[in-house]
Amino acid sequence: MTAPVGTPPYYRFRSQARYSRARADLLGWYLTFRQTDTDEPFDLAVFSAGVPADSPLLMALEHRPEEAQPETLGAALAYLRVCLQLAEQHWPPAESFEAALAATRTSGAAGGSASETVAAPPLPPPEPADLSPPPPPQPRRRHPLRRALRGLILLALLVAACWGGGRLLQTTVERRAMAADLHRPLPAFVSALSGLSLSLPGFASACLGTAPDNCRKSDPAQPYATPLHADLARARSASSRMLAALAPLAPEDGADWIVATPAQNCRVGGGDTLEDDWRLVSSLCRVRERLTEYELCLVGHPMISDRQCADLMRLAMADTAFDCTDCPPRPANVFDPRLEWTRESRVAAGLVLEVRRFAAPDPILRLTWTRLTGDYLWLRAEALRHYAALSD
Low complexity composition bias: which ranges (predicted)? Predict the structure, then answer.
């Protein structure tokens, strides 16, 4: 219900307690003065005598301006009833004032005439509501043990975050430093591989058409001999420099694969080395081994025979598997059946991409996780060892 249009503002009760008090006072007034003439002039003093002196009804009447004071008793009662009806929208009662008033009048009519009915005393006013602001809520007290446990959990998370961040920073610095050393000889390696793609097949095709020992001569007059010497030297030098840049990946007992002969295996040490790192080192070693074999053929080294050198040159021209059942014994580093130059050239080209991805975010994160996992396993083993020692 809203206020009628064109009427002065109605009084708003400050609290639900004052609204309940006004409701009871007005209902009591109706019970006491049943047969009053609502068309008679309104006298505030006479009306005040019928309600308690501190009734909110009087405040509602005094709140109206002088020019808007009701002229008749019916207008004053209608104004107070509208005030109550508006208040019921904010604090809905179990029974509206109009329904309670109608029930009271019905029970009064059934009981007898107005002259025989004894005026019912007004209802006792309710206790005034305490309008002081409620005290501020007190913070809940946490148990000291819970506070200590929460502090320990936060401290453990902080230590784990600092440890993980430190490991990530350490891995990033190490990988970027190694990548910088890897990238320096990379342009020379790429240029040498590009030259070998032309000079090696050209030299091989020229030497195979002549006497067998032509493949073992270092005569500059041999076709492609001079550029082949230069390309092999640059490629082998660049591969050795890249292997030297990967020295931190070598086993703890010495970086023997950096200066090792081609027949030796390139071992990668350390439990936190990635599989990609192992493949990179292994591929560089195999490329260097193949380049060394070609250089031995060019200089006519005694450890290579004419037949072996000719077969090696044949492999330089086509990707054919080496199969020689009646060949004499030969050094272990020469003519590995799994190594053909065409395949090795593809592997060497793939090395360029692997070197460029060496310091990418993905290998750095994977290596950091591997190291953190190793740290966790070490801490767990130490804790179990100390627990076993205390148990004994």
Answer: 108-120
